[in-house]
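User: Can you predict the 3D structure for this chain?
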Amino acid sequence: MPHFLSLQIDKLETAGALLVSPASILSIPAVAAALTIATCCLALRQKRRRGRVRWGALARAVVARRVILNRSTGADLFCYFVNTFAISGLIGWGLFSGLTVSHATVRLATAAFGPHAATALPAWALRAGITGALFLGYEFGYYVDHLMKHKIAFLWEFHKTHHTAEALTPLTVFRVHPVDTLIFFDIVATTTGVAHGLFIYLAGRPLQIYALAGANVLTVVCLLLLAHLQHSQFWIPLRGLAGRLVLSPAHHQLHHSADPAHYNCNLGSFLAVFDWLFGTLNLPEQRSPRLKFGVPQQGGDPHRVFAILITPFTGGLGALFRQTPQAETQEAASEPDPLTAA
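Assistant: Here is the predicted structure, written as C-alpha coordinates:
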Protein backbone atom coordinates (compact mmCIF):
# COMPACT_ATOMS: atom_id res chain seq x y z
CA MET A 1 0.00 0.00 0.00
CA PRO A 2 1.43 3.46 -0.87
CA HIS A 3 2.69 5.35 2.16
CA PHE A 4 0.39 8.34 1.51
CA LEU A 5 -2.70 6.12 1.33
CA SER A 6 -1.65 4.28 4.49
CA LEU A 7 -1.19 7.63 6.24
CA GLN A 8 -4.68 8.76 5.27
CA ILE A 9 -6.19 5.49 6.51
CA ASP A 10 -4.43 6.00 9.84
CA LYS A 11 -5.82 9.53 9.99
CA LEU A 12 -9.29 8.23 9.22
CA GLU A 13 -9.07 5.78 12.10
CA THR A 14 -7.78 8.52 14.39
CA ALA A 15 -10.58 10.88 13.32
CA GLY A 16 -13.12 8.13 13.99
CA ALA A 17 -11.71 7.56 17.46
CA LEU A 18 -11.84 11.29 18.20
CA LEU A 19 -15.55 11.33 17.45
CA VAL A 20 -16.19 9.31 20.61
CA SER A 21 -13.49 10.73 22.89
CA PRO A 22 -14.73 13.34 25.38
CA ALA A 23 -11.29 14.98 25.18
CA SER A 24 -11.63 15.66 21.44
CA ILE A 25 -12.34 19.15 20.16
CA LEU A 26 -15.11 17.64 18.02
CA SER A 27 -16.73 14.60 19.59
CA ILE A 28 -20.21 13.16 19.78
CA PRO A 29 -20.28 13.44 23.63
CA ALA A 30 -19.23 17.11 23.48
CA VAL A 31 -21.73 18.02 20.76
CA ALA A 32 -24.49 16.14 22.63
CA ALA A 33 -23.63 17.98 25.84
CA ALA A 34 -23.74 21.33 24.00
CA LEU A 35 -27.12 20.59 22.43
CA THR A 36 -28.51 19.46 25.78
CA ILE A 37 -27.31 22.61 27.54
CA ALA A 38 -28.58 24.84 24.73
CA THR A 39 -31.99 23.15 24.66
CA CYS A 40 -32.39 23.48 28.43
CA CYS A 41 -31.39 27.15 28.36
CA LEU A 42 -33.78 27.94 25.53
CA ALA A 43 -36.63 26.03 27.15
CA LEU A 44 -36.12 27.92 30.42
CA ARG A 45 -36.00 31.22 28.52
CA GLN A 46 -39.25 30.43 26.71
CA LYS A 47 -40.89 29.35 29.94
CA ARG A 48 -39.85 32.56 31.65
CA ARG A 49 -40.91 34.86 28.80
CA ARG A 50 -44.04 33.12 27.51
CA GLY A 51 -45.13 30.93 30.37
CA ARG A 52 -44.74 27.73 28.33
CA VAL A 53 -42.33 25.92 26.04
CA ARG A 54 -43.12 25.92 22.33
CA TRP A 55 -41.35 22.74 21.27
CA GLY A 56 -41.67 23.39 17.54
CA ALA A 57 -40.06 26.80 17.81
CA LEU A 58 -37.44 25.35 20.13
CA ALA A 59 -36.55 22.65 17.59
CA ARG A 60 -36.25 25.26 14.82
CA ALA A 61 -33.95 27.34 16.99
CA VAL A 62 -31.69 24.42 17.85
CA VAL A 63 -31.54 23.09 14.28
CA ALA A 64 -31.50 26.41 12.43
CA ARG A 65 -31.65 25.90 8.66
CA ARG A 66 -30.01 29.22 7.87
CA VAL A 67 -27.00 28.14 9.90
CA ILE A 68 -26.76 24.56 8.66
CA LEU A 69 -27.27 25.52 5.00
CA ASN A 70 -25.10 28.64 5.17
CA ARG A 71 -22.15 28.71 2.75
CA SER A 72 -19.99 29.66 5.70
CA THR A 73 -20.82 26.32 7.35
CA GLY A 74 -19.86 24.52 4.15
CA ALA A 75 -16.49 26.28 4.21
CA ASP A 76 -16.05 25.23 7.85
CA LEU A 77 -16.67 21.62 6.83
CA PHE A 78 -14.05 21.95 4.09
CA CYS A 79 -11.56 23.28 6.65
CA TYR A 80 -12.32 20.35 8.94
CA PHE A 81 -11.35 17.84 6.27
CA VAL A 82 -8.31 19.82 5.13
CA ASN A 83 -6.92 20.26 8.64
CA THR A 84 -7.71 16.68 9.65
CA PHE A 85 -6.56 14.70 6.62
CA ALA A 86 -4.24 16.87 4.53
CA ILE A 87 -2.22 19.56 6.25
CA SER A 88 -1.67 18.02 9.70
CA GLY A 89 0.54 15.29 8.25
CA LEU A 90 2.67 17.86 6.43
CA ILE A 91 3.52 20.33 9.19
CA GLY A 92 2.89 18.25 12.33
CA TRP A 93 1.23 21.14 14.23
CA GLY A 94 4.31 22.30 16.09
CA LEU A 95 8.04 22.91 15.91
CA PHE A 96 8.61 21.66 19.46
CA SER A 97 6.63 20.10 22.29
CA GLY A 98 5.62 21.28 25.72
CA LEU A 99 7.57 18.38 27.22
CA THR A 100 10.75 19.65 25.56
CA VAL A 101 10.16 23.09 27.06
CA SER A 102 9.42 21.52 30.46
CA HIS A 103 12.70 19.59 30.52
CA ALA A 104 14.60 22.72 29.51
CA THR A 105 12.85 24.72 32.23
CA VAL A 106 13.80 22.19 34.91
CA ARG A 107 17.43 22.19 33.72
CA LEU A 108 17.62 25.98 33.70
CA ALA A 109 16.03 26.29 37.15
CA THR A 110 18.39 23.65 38.55
CA ALA A 111 21.41 25.37 37.03
CA ALA A 112 20.33 28.76 38.40
CA PHE A 113 19.13 27.79 41.89
CA GLY A 114 20.42 24.27 42.49
CA PRO A 115 18.35 21.13 43.07
CA HIS A 116 15.09 21.66 44.92
CA ALA A 117 14.22 19.38 47.82
CA ALA A 118 11.13 17.23 47.41
CA THR A 119 8.06 18.84 48.96
CA ALA A 120 6.16 17.15 51.78
CA LEU A 121 2.74 17.96 50.31
CA PRO A 122 0.47 14.94 49.75
CA ALA A 123 0.35 13.38 46.29
CA TRP A 124 -3.27 14.38 45.64
CA ALA A 125 -2.47 18.05 46.35
CA LEU A 126 0.50 17.99 44.01
CA ARG A 127 -1.53 16.34 41.25
CA ALA A 128 -4.28 18.90 41.68
CA GLY A 129 -1.70 21.68 41.66
CA ILE A 130 0.05 20.62 38.48
CA THR A 131 -3.32 20.00 36.79
CA GLY A 132 -4.33 23.57 37.59
CA ALA A 133 -0.93 24.98 36.63
CA LEU A 134 -1.05 23.34 33.20
CA PHE A 135 -4.60 24.56 32.65
CA LEU A 136 -3.55 28.12 33.52
CA GLY A 137 -0.48 27.77 31.31
CA TYR A 138 -2.70 26.79 28.40
CA GLU A 139 -5.13 29.63 29.05
CA PHE A 140 -2.32 32.19 29.27
CA GLY A 141 -0.71 30.88 26.08
CA TYR A 142 -4.06 31.00 24.29
CA TYR A 143 -4.56 34.60 25.40
CA VAL A 144 -1.06 35.73 24.37
CA ASP A 145 -1.37 34.01 20.99
CA HIS A 146 -4.81 35.49 20.38
CA LEU A 147 -3.80 39.00 21.43
CA MET A 148 -0.77 38.95 19.12
CA LYS A 149 -2.89 37.81 16.18
CA HIS A 150 -5.34 40.65 16.68
CA LYS A 151 -2.68 43.33 17.15
CA ILE A 152 0.09 42.36 14.68
CA ALA A 153 -0.93 42.96 11.07
CA PHE A 154 1.05 40.03 9.61
CA LEU A 155 -0.41 37.53 12.08
CA TRP A 156 -3.92 38.96 11.72
CA GLU A 157 -3.94 38.12 8.01
CA PHE A 158 -3.69 34.41 8.88
CA HIS A 159 -6.00 34.56 11.90
CA LYS A 160 -8.59 36.50 9.89
CA THR A 161 -9.56 33.24 8.14
CA HIS A 162 -11.26 32.18 11.37
CA HIS A 163 -13.16 35.46 11.61
CA THR A 164 -14.55 35.27 8.08
CA ALA A 165 -17.12 32.77 9.37
CA GLU A 166 -20.56 34.35 8.96
CA ALA A 167 -22.37 31.61 10.88
CA LEU A 168 -20.92 30.02 14.00
CA THR A 169 -21.10 26.24 14.42
CA PRO A 170 -18.93 23.67 16.22
CA LEU A 171 -17.09 23.22 12.90
CA THR A 172 -15.95 26.86 12.99
CA VAL A 173 -13.19 25.84 15.40
CA PHE A 174 -11.54 24.12 12.39
CA ARG A 175 -11.77 27.24 10.23
CA VAL A 176 -8.15 28.16 10.88
CA HIS A 177 -5.23 28.67 8.56
CA PRO A 178 -2.36 26.14 9.00
CA VAL A 179 0.11 28.95 9.76
CA ASP A 180 -2.24 30.22 12.47
CA THR A 181 -2.36 26.74 13.99
CA LEU A 182 1.40 26.25 13.82
CA ILE A 183 2.04 29.48 15.72
CA PHE A 184 -0.67 28.65 18.26
CA PHE A 185 0.75 25.23 19.08
CA ASP A 186 4.26 26.59 19.59
CA ILE A 187 3.15 29.43 21.86
CA VAL A 188 0.96 27.13 23.96
CA ALA A 189 3.76 24.53 24.09
CA THR A 190 6.00 27.25 25.52
CA THR A 191 3.60 28.47 28.21
CA THR A 192 2.42 25.02 29.29
CA GLY A 193 5.98 23.68 29.19
CA VAL A 194 7.26 26.48 31.44
CA ALA A 195 4.34 26.00 33.86
CA HIS A 196 4.94 22.24 33.98
CA GLY A 197 8.69 22.56 34.36
CA LEU A 198 8.51 25.12 37.18
CA PHE A 199 5.96 23.03 39.08
CA ILE A 200 8.07 19.88 38.69
CA TYR A 201 11.16 21.75 39.87
CA LEU A 202 9.42 23.16 42.96
CA ALA A 203 7.81 19.80 43.75
CA GLY A 204 11.19 18.09 43.53
CA ARG A 205 9.80 14.99 41.83
CA PRO A 206 7.92 13.83 38.70
CA LEU A 207 4.15 14.25 38.79
CA GLN A 208 1.10 13.17 36.82
CA ILE A 209 -1.94 15.34 36.17
CA TYR A 210 -5.54 14.38 36.79
CA ALA A 211 -6.61 13.27 33.34
CA LEU A 212 -9.73 12.11 31.53
CA ALA A 213 -9.37 10.35 28.17
CA GLY A 214 -5.69 11.26 28.21
CA ALA A 215 -6.26 15.01 28.60
CA ASN A 216 -6.28 17.51 31.45
CA VAL A 217 -9.57 16.93 33.29
CA LEU A 218 -10.19 20.70 33.59
CA THR A 219 -9.83 21.10 29.82
CA VAL A 220 -12.20 18.19 29.18
CA VAL A 221 -14.84 19.70 31.48
CA CYS A 222 -14.58 23.03 29.65
CA LEU A 223 -14.80 21.28 26.28
CA LEU A 224 -18.01 19.56 27.34
CA LEU A 225 -19.61 22.65 28.88
CA LEU A 226 -18.39 25.54 26.75
CA ALA A 227 -16.37 24.81 23.62
CA HIS A 228 -19.11 24.02 21.12
CA LEU A 229 -21.51 26.60 22.51
CA GLN A 230 -18.92 29.34 22.04
CA HIS A 231 -19.14 28.75 18.28
CA SER A 232 -22.91 28.55 17.99
CA GLN A 233 -26.03 30.67 17.50
CA PHE A 234 -27.09 30.23 21.13
CA TRP A 235 -26.87 33.39 23.22
CA ILE A 236 -25.97 32.12 26.72
CA PRO A 237 -24.35 34.93 28.73
CA LEU A 238 -22.55 35.00 32.06
CA ARG A 239 -22.47 38.32 33.89
CA GLY A 240 -21.21 39.71 37.17
CA LEU A 241 -18.33 37.91 38.84
CA ALA A 242 -19.03 34.72 36.87
CA GLY A 243 -18.63 36.67 33.63
CA ARG A 244 -15.27 37.98 34.82
CA LEU A 245 -14.00 34.48 35.53
CA VAL A 246 -15.49 32.35 32.73
CA LEU A 247 -15.97 33.14 29.05
CA SER A 248 -19.54 32.14 28.29
CA PRO A 249 -20.76 31.40 24.75
CA ALA A 250 -22.02 35.00 24.51
CA HIS A 251 -18.54 36.31 25.37
CA HIS A 252 -17.03 34.54 22.39
CA GLN A 253 -19.85 35.57 20.08
CA LEU A 254 -19.03 39.19 20.97
CA HIS A 255 -15.44 38.38 20.01
CA HIS A 256 -16.65 37.32 16.53
CA SER A 257 -18.95 40.33 16.17
CA ALA A 258 -18.61 42.63 13.15
CA ASP A 259 -19.57 45.60 15.34
CA PRO A 260 -16.47 47.84 15.87
CA ALA A 261 -17.47 48.20 19.52
CA HIS A 262 -16.61 44.53 20.01
CA TYR A 263 -13.28 44.32 18.17
CA ASN A 264 -10.36 42.69 20.00
CA CYS A 265 -12.38 41.69 23.06
CA ASN A 266 -12.71 38.42 24.98
CA LEU A 267 -9.49 36.85 23.71
CA GLY A 268 -9.25 33.95 26.16
CA SER A 269 -10.26 30.35 25.64
CA PHE A 270 -12.37 29.33 28.64
CA LEU A 271 -11.22 31.71 31.39
CA ALA A 272 -12.02 35.43 31.39
CA VAL A 273 -9.43 36.31 34.03
CA PHE A 274 -6.68 37.35 31.59
CA ASP A 275 -9.10 39.50 29.62
CA TRP A 276 -10.19 41.02 32.94
CA LEU A 277 -6.60 41.63 34.05
CA PHE A 278 -5.43 43.15 30.75
CA GLY A 279 -8.50 45.21 29.89
CA THR A 280 -9.89 43.24 26.94
CA LEU A 281 -12.99 41.89 28.68
CA ASN A 282 -16.41 42.83 27.28
CA LEU A 283 -19.28 41.49 29.37
CA PRO A 284 -22.30 40.38 27.31
CA GLU A 285 -25.76 41.78 27.88
CA GLN A 286 -28.52 39.53 29.17
CA ARG A 287 -30.43 39.83 25.90
CA SER A 288 -28.73 39.17 22.59
CA PRO A 289 -27.81 42.30 20.59
CA ARG A 290 -28.48 40.38 17.33
CA LEU A 291 -24.90 40.26 16.18
CA LYS A 292 -23.55 40.03 12.66
CA PHE A 293 -20.41 38.00 12.01
CA GLY A 294 -17.79 38.01 9.29
CA VAL A 295 -14.73 39.79 7.92
CA PRO A 296 -14.98 40.06 4.13
CA GLN A 297 -11.86 39.47 2.08
CA GLN A 298 -11.15 42.43 -0.18
CA GLY A 299 -12.25 41.65 -3.71
CA GLY A 300 -13.16 38.05 -3.06
CA ASP A 301 -15.50 35.50 -1.55
CA PRO A 302 -14.22 34.57 1.95
CA HIS A 303 -15.68 31.06 1.67
CA ARG A 304 -13.72 29.98 -1.40
CA VAL A 305 -10.68 27.72 -1.13
CA PHE A 306 -8.34 30.40 -2.50
CA ALA A 307 -9.50 32.94 0.10
CA ILE A 308 -9.16 30.46 2.93
CA LEU A 309 -5.72 29.04 2.11
CA ILE A 310 -3.89 31.41 -0.27
CA THR A 311 -5.13 34.95 0.37
CA PRO A 312 -3.66 35.02 3.92
CA PHE A 313 -0.17 34.62 2.41
CA THR A 314 -0.63 37.53 0.03
CA GLY A 315 -2.26 39.60 2.75
CA GLY A 316 0.54 38.74 5.17
CA LEU A 317 3.22 39.81 2.71
CA GLY A 318 1.35 43.06 2.11
CA ALA A 319 1.05 43.64 5.87
CA LEU A 320 4.84 43.50 6.22
CA PHE A 321 5.17 46.62 4.08
CA ARG A 322 2.32 48.77 5.31
CA GLN A 323 0.79 50.03 8.51
CA THR A 324 -2.70 48.48 8.59
CA PRO A 325 -5.13 48.20 11.49
CA GLN A 326 -5.94 44.61 12.24
CA ALA A 327 -9.38 43.70 13.55
CA GLU A 328 -10.37 47.37 13.31
CA THR A 329 -10.66 46.89 9.52
CA GLN A 330 -13.48 44.37 9.93
CA GLU A 331 -16.71 45.13 8.13
CA ALA A 332 -20.15 43.68 8.64
CA ALA A 333 -21.01 41.51 5.64
CA SER A 334 -23.37 38.82 6.80
CA GLU A 335 -26.97 38.15 7.69
CA PRO A 336 -27.97 38.63 11.33
CA ASP A 337 -27.00 35.74 13.51
CA PRO A 338 -30.02 33.50 14.24
CA LEU A 339 -30.94 34.17 17.83
CA THR A 340 -32.47 31.68 20.12
CA ALA A 341 -35.26 33.52 21.87
CA ALA A 342 -37.69 31.14 20.19
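The chain has one domain: 3-329. The first strand starts at residue 211 and ends at 212.
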